[in-house]
Amino acid sequence: MLGPVILAASRSDRMRRLISAAPVTKPVVDRFIPGESVDQVVPIIQDLTAKGLEVTMDVVGEDITTPEQATLARDAYLELIDRLKRLELGERAEMSVKLSLFGQALEGGHELALANVRPVVEAAAAIGTTVTLDAEDHTTLDSMFAIHEELRKDFPETGCVIQAYLFRTEADARRLAEAGSRVRLVKGAYKEPAEVAYQQKAETDKAYVRILRILMEGEGYPMIGSHDPRLISIAQELARRAGRKPDEYEFQMLYGIRSDEHLRLAAEGHRMRVYTAYGTDWYGYFMRRLAEKPANLLFFGRSILTKS
């Protein structure tokens, strides 16, 4: 099982330095993270939306150690929103936010993260789009859900992410599957202990289907975060059984993974949103993409061998 090893490496400063310094790394990273600045990703946004796709934008970075860094992260999102305003894409381009980037792990982090994320959500609403709060490791979730609940009082379109591999998630899904809610369901990409999370893929997949059924039968708006062809087919069947129209749920996939499938789903009339990350602090995000899918790791390994 290479996934847990890679996830452990994502927290290693030594591995960060080693991988970042490797000449082959940048071309491979570019497959998943198409730019470091707003100027570099704007053409990507324009290209994806011109193809009938939608996007959710993520400014990568999680290892915040000072309130000043959290403020800079907030400002990076505000800069992004200003550029999205000029593109006039409305809800076709929204944002995903990790609260750790806004200082959640610092002293007084819950209040700090809420104070930093609120102006981002306000600015997003002002241009006709919204924000989804990404889930991180299980120790941060109670804070994330509390911030989500607080933001929804004024901005009910604010979304959140739940992770199928956590034991708690079925209960979270029942609570969240209410009218007006927006919930992205993913398998989960953090190293979690056996006390709180399924450790086997088959168990996680079964949980994913159970939770997706709860969301589809609820009154909210499900967002299916998966590249798994089987789960995508199951999602379509669950939507049909629940009597959902194509605009009453959406698929979400990562930039650089199964791009042909993005276009196929959009061509069939489904809402298909591409999770597109950018920024300079790409290491943790990149390593979790490798851990999520063996094919990603093989792609990286082949690139290293080819370039060496």
Structure description:
- There is one protein chain.
- The protein starts with a helix and ends with a helix.
- The chain has 308 residues and is of the alpha/beta class.
- The protein has helices at 2-9, 13-21, 25-32, 38-50, 67-87, 109-126, 141-154, 169-176, 201-217, 229-241, 259-267, 283-292, 294-307; strands at 54-59, 93-98, 131-134, 159-163, 182-186, 221-225, 250-254, 272-278.
- The protein is 53% helix and 14% strand.
- It has an eight-stranded parallel barrel, surrounded by seven helices.
- β6, α10 (229-241) and β7 (250-254) form a beta-alpha-beta unit.
- Residues 303-308 have low confidence and may be disordered.
State the low-pLDDT regions, or none: 303-308
Instruction: Output the structural class.
Output: alpha/beta
Give the mean pLDDT.
88
Largest sheet: 8 strands, parallel, barrel
**What coarse outline follows from CA principal-axis ratios?**
globular
Q: What percent of residues adopt helix (DSSP H or I)?
A: 40-55%
The end-to-end span amounts to 26 Å
Give the H and E element order: HHHHEHEHEHEHEHEHEHEHH
The total beta strand count reads 8
Strand content: 5-15%
Return Rg in Å. Answer: 18 Å
**Largest beta sheet: what is the strand line-up?**
1-2-3-4-5-6-7-8
DSSP helix count? Answer: 13
What would the keywords be for this entry?
308 residues, 8 strands, disordered C terminus
Secondary-structure topology with pairs:
Layout: H1 2-9, H2 13-21, H3 25-32, H4 38-50, E1 54-59, H5 67-87, E2 93-98, H6 109-126, E3 131-134, H7 141-154, E4 159-163, H8 169-176, E5 182-186, H9 201-217, E6 221-225, H10 229-241, E7 250-254, H11 259-267, E8 272-278, H12 283-292, H13 294-307
Parallel strand pairs: 1-2, 1-8, 2-3, 3-4, 4-5, 5-6, 6-7, 7-8
Helix pairs in contact: 1-12, 5-6, 6-7, 8-9, 9-10, 12-13
